[in-house]
Amino acid sequence: MCGIVGYIGKQDTTKFLLDGLKELEYRGYDSAGIALLNDEKIDVFKALGKLKNLSEKVESAKLSKYEIGIGHTRWATHGKPTELNAHPHLGEYSYVVHNGIIENYKELKEELIKAGHNFVSQTDTEVIVHLFENFQNKLNDTTEAFKNTITKLEGAFSILLISKADPSKIFFFKHGSPLIIAKGNEKGEVLFSSSDAPLIGLSNEVVYLEDGVGGIASADSIEFFSDDYSWSTLPSSKQFAQKDGFRFFMEKEIYEQSSVVSDCMLGRIQDNEISFDEIDESILEGIKEIKICACGTSYHAGLTSSYLFERLSKVKCSIEVASEFRYKEPLLTKDTLFIVISQSGETADTLEALKMAKKAGLKSLVICNVDNSSMTRTADYTILTRAGIEKGVASTKAFSTQATVLWMLALYFAKINDSISSEKLQKELHALREVPKSLIIDDKIHEKTKRLSKRYLHGHGFFFIGRDVFFPLALEGALKLKEISYLHAEGYPSGEMKHGPIALADPELFTIALMPQNLLYDKIKSNVEELSARDSTICSISPLEFELSDDFIKTQKTDHYMLEFFEMLVVLQLFSMEISIRLGNDVDMPRNLAKSVTVE
Fold first, then answer.
1. What integer is the mean pLDDT of 367-394?
2. What DSSP line would sit under 108-177, residue for residue?
3. 2 noted as active-site residue
4. Which of 1, 52, 190, 331 is the most exposed place for a label (fewest CB within 10 A)?
5. How many CB atoms lie within 10 A of CB 152?
6. Domain for residue 450, yes or no?
7. What does pLDDT average to over the chain?
């Protein structure tokens, strides 16, 4: 979360910063700001809320010519979203932008206040610029001042710093949060960004900075503090994600799922088997267990796959919430394959869990949508989901492609372990080939969710319930509704309702029941009947009509429960989106959330 950009050069510095922040706004939109520097002065602009507010401020200002600038779009961690707490943060003569969390900021702040520094914000970031100036005032050497600063910081911090004490340079450092440095197409241009999207078309050569790597950039040179870096080639063109007539990026991305899942499968489903160029059969040598670690939507994809790995591959599989796993002193043995799942490849808790597994000597595999991300550079093996750019903060096509990759991986492992018959494998492959069709949205289904949405705007909450793989799908459905509608929703295994939660059942409790024909239908039917008997309002999603439903969304009849899984996924996504739209919310940029969670 939070997006950083920086620019050195003779082009329009302000335009690059604003355009770059627009590309990164999905990473945070509580506030935004830019600092522009020339030999004479620093000009700063900040605005609360979305980037358009900052753009309006800049457009109405009288600007000088600047050859250096830094910018930031914020997802609030320390301090409320206010202009005062927005980045860049000021010392006496320097500005800093920062992505991450400074864990020891309170101790540093107390020391700096005693030394005479005045703080104006509630943020942890502000200590960085005061710490730099504290050293600079003593040493009168900006390079040493910056080096001393970063050695005093603890936590996660990607930093860009500019100072009137050395107005031709940007000081940079990366630890824990993504940061890229690029050589611009024009002579003397240096560009910085949290992701490569703002750089494409403006640069060919980039360094994806590793943790602990920093340096100093100017129009004349880029100096790194260590040799732990390498230059890569950036693609020269891209298709910017546009809404293509859809109301929201999220809606567009829901509709894209059929095509991106096809891309995800391309070259991987053979006539009689699954093939991954990225891995080989040796990946399972000495492996007795799979451990999956992820957060949020990716956790739900992992939980779905845990059923498939045990059912198809016959390998013991456990799933961990990454933020909990990091601190539970887990027992890690080398007969475990450690799988992490992340849309961005930068999720802080998941990345740290991966590093723990690597340190313990485990084989590691990342399922990810972003090549050259921190996780893909850390793990032993990478399988890319090929979902394309996902602009909506509430993940949709990332989940469907993750679930597809994991299903294919379960079949790949099943073949290696000789745990699946040829007949069963062919049936699974046939079902896999049908997934893109299951993800094509029927106009009638979308219209039904739109019409039903007006009946589910009030009440005291939602229960999404399902069994087996439909339990993690229920969790994902509840998460989508929470993320974008701000209504209370919980996902439960349907068999657990009578162990406490059914006490909440009444007409104002909305139950969204996932009732697949091909998997434990009679069991979940019995659970829904128990809720109906307590007068809960029931919306069933199923190919089979259920007489006790208050509302019914009919899905296609198929011969495989996973095809029902993917069609119900689309229904849940559309249902949540339509409720959110009726409530007047910003579907793509829900409050308090950011796309890439790069802090704990």
1. 92
2. HHHHHHHTT----SS-STHHHHHHHHHHHHHH--HHHHHHHHHHH--EEEEEEEEETTSTT-EEEEEESS
3. yes
4. 331
5. 17
6. yes
7. 92
457-471: average pLDDT: 94
Please indicate, yes or no, whether residues 447 and 434 belong to a single structural domain of this protein: no
Asked whether the beta carbons of 88 and 126 are under 8 A apart, the reply is no
Q: Are residues 131 and 251 both part of a single domain? A: no
Range of the domain at 491: 442-600
Give the tokens for residue 311: 């059912």
User: Same domain for 170 and 192?
Assistant: yes
Instruction: Indicate which CATH number applies to the domain containing 227.
Output: 3.60.20.10
Phi, psi of 517 (to 5 degrees): -70, -30
Residue 469 lies in a domain: yes
The 8-class DSSP code of residue 269 comes to B
Residue whose tokens read 């050069």: 9
565 and 473, same structural domain? Answer: yes
From the candidates 109, 448, 482, 595, give the one annotated as an active-site residue.
Answer: 595
Asked which of 400, 423, 440 is the last residue of a domain, the reply is 440
- pLDDT band, residue 241 (cuts 50/70/90): very low
Would you put residue 381 in left (φ > 0), alpha (ψ -120 to 50) or beta?
beta
**pLDDT: which is higher, 254 or 238:** 254
pTM of the model: 0.81
pLDDT tens digits, residue range 46-57?
Answer: 999 888 999 999
How many domains are contained in the chain? 3
Q: Are residues 124 and 184 in the same domain?
A: yes
Asked whether residue 300 carries a pLDDT value surpassing 90, the answer given is yes
How far is Cα 595 from Cα 600, in angstroms, rounded to an integer? 14
- Give the per-residue pLDDT at 275: 93
Catalytic, out of 2, 293, 368, 539: 2
Q: What average pLDDT does range 384-403 have in this prediction?
A: 93
Q: Is 595 a catalytic residue?
A: yes
pLDDT of residue 134: 97
Single out the residue in 183, 201, 233 at which a domain terminates.
Answer: 233
Which residues does 380 contact at the CB level (< 8 Å), separation at least 6? 358, 363, 364, 365
